[in-house]
Amino acid sequence: MPDAPRDGGIRVDSTARSRRTMLAFDLPPGNGVRWVARRKIEVVAAVMAGAITLEDVCQRYALSLEEFESWRQIHGADANQLVSRRMKRGRRI
Fold it and tell me: How far is the CA of 46 from the CAs of 1, 66, 76, in angstroms?
């Protein structure tokens, strides 16, 4: 059995993306987060990979849909690269 992810970590079974790997996302805790670009990219990537739903993200971090969409517009390309790199490198849990 793999180790549990760090606090706030989310696992995603990426078989829907045609690979049998578990991708790890180091999501920040749900309260008192200072939103730097790196954290926003991690959250957007987790949603893009299906590790967590948009509704769960908005509830967990008290975000509006508009705010998350602005993150996706600004950081979507970086988040997509993050997901791709983790799939290629096999960042597994």
Answer: 22, 18, 11
pLDDT tens for 13-66 read: 444 444 334 467 888 888 788 999 999 999 999 999 988 999 999 999 999 999
Rounded Cα gap, residues 34 and 12, in angstroms: 24
Global confidence as pTM: 0.72
Cα separation of the two ends of the chain: 9
Q: Which two tokens stand for residue 75?
A: 């950081």
* Cβ(27)–Cβ(9) below 8 Å: yes
By the 8 A CB rule, do 12 and 23 touch? yes
Greatest mean pLDDT among 2-6, 7-11, 68-72: 68-72
Neighbours of 91 (CB within 10 A): 14
